[in-house]
Amino acid sequence: MNNPILLAAILSCAALVTSAGAADPETTQTPATPAPSPSEGEISDTQTRLELAKVLTYDKKYPEAIEAYHQLLAADPNNIEAKIGLCEVLYWTGKTDEAAAVLKDVPEEKLDDKGKLMLADLLVAKKDYPSAIRIFTTYLNQKPDEYSVRLKLADVQSWTKDYPEAIANYELILKARPKDRQVRRKYGMVLSWSGQNEKAAEQLRESLNP
Predict the structure, then answer these.
(1) Tell me: the pLDDT tens digits for 56-84?
(2) Do both 53 and 96 map to the same domain?
């Protein structure tokens, strides 16, 4: 090429192209991959152990459920939900003393309704009737239509010879469930124990009707 001006122009253009290519980050480096952030939906070991214990309980694999709850509490000693779950399984398997020991150090105010009712059942099993009556009564002040709990209260009141209170509670239950023969029979028995023989006979007779 004999034209020096044309040669200079070509070389200048080539230099510009090379410079532009060097400035293009896509042609000179690979962008760094950002580090993955922890997932907000990750399930903790505690949640996993608790769910495992529940599943084993649902499947009535009680020894395995008890072991799972013990493992959870070894790792998380203050887990109230685990303590209530373990207490239930122990209670269902007849280990009432062990069940009571699980809840012994749990302040009553930290228990939910389910836990408080479980504690009341344990107190009944240990024949601590006044404490059980207190828990049942407090619960029914908030939920008066829970007739299964009211029946437990009436039964305990009958055992402690609190006949007027037991009779009043049986009557409330029968008002809502007049076809319940077993409740009517308990009612009749307590009427008898309280010396109201005529009323007792009436209720017992009615409980025998088809």
Answers:
(1) 999 999 999 999 999 999 999 999 999 99
(2) yes
